[in-house]
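TODO from last week: model Metal-dependent protein hydrolase.
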Amino acid sequence: MAESSAKRLRTDAGAVTIGTHNGHFHADEALAVHMLRTHIPTYRDASLIRTRDPALLATCHTVVDVGGEYDAAANRYDHHQRTFATTFPARATKLSSAGLVYMHFGKEMIARRLQAAEDSEQVALIWRKIYESFVEALDAHDNGISVYDPAALAAAGIEKKFSNGGFTLGAMVGRLNANWNDAVPEDPAAAQAAEDARFVLASQRIGEEFDRDLEYYTSAWLPAREVVVGAFSERAEFDAQGRIMVLKGQSVPWKDHLYTLEEEQGDDVKKVLYVLYPEKPGPGAKWRIQCVPETKDSFQSRKPLPEAWRGFRDEKLDEIASIDGCVFVHAAGFIGGNKTFEGALAMAQKALE
């Protein structure tokens, strides 16, 4: 029996219809709907139905996060069935509806943005990167998978030092659901319309974050790879063991690419400890020396700048380091500056000692 209009939403009537569930919504289906409607031409003018009625879902061209079926050939992308265990290639996290839609349509989105073939190396690189940096967190959140093994943390006696405020992608969408004590319209149709409007807002909100990542990785992160590859290949010019890398023209996002290049080189290659780059393009720019973190998100450097330099500036730092042109060294020792490239290089080389 079909649901009443109070229990479903149908918007932007078009030839193709996307179905998802009504009621409390989550980040995974909000993102899945956004990716399809925004980035895949087939779904550009798609209608949206929010329902749990099997009869209505059966009329939909595509169904996400409801229906108990995963069959890409039939455009069914649910993950709640007991037998579901699908993961992204070479990853262990079970997929949600966001991961399923991204796995099947992500390369098309990226290829369109790059104007490249879907089977190109560049598309594959970004497809994997966006999954690992954005979509996988939603898959884990929706499937109740913690970032760290709770049992291992408890066994090690590790406790949080402070609350992170719940600032996650999933929490961001969750906040857009109604509160338990919010006023609800007495008219069922009006109540459903209010819920539906919240879902549309949630889909737009998570979509904005996804689109920013898609834009960043295609237009900034990928071009930076070529710059880092060049600098990585020339590092022996500044240190015989390759522990100093210089970005000669300007700074670019380098951490991801550096870690990937080092991993490809294997354990026999010395790790880069310091990265040098100008503060801005053009002649006369001051230079920075930045310590490479243990991991991308770590505050622990592989080799911090000397403790004796930390917290000092200008002439005093020149005196302590016996290097001209010093500007500063941060109190935590993870970054410093010099007026010239030669001075920054001297700081790096001396810090290696």
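Done. The two ends are 77 Å apart (CA to CA).
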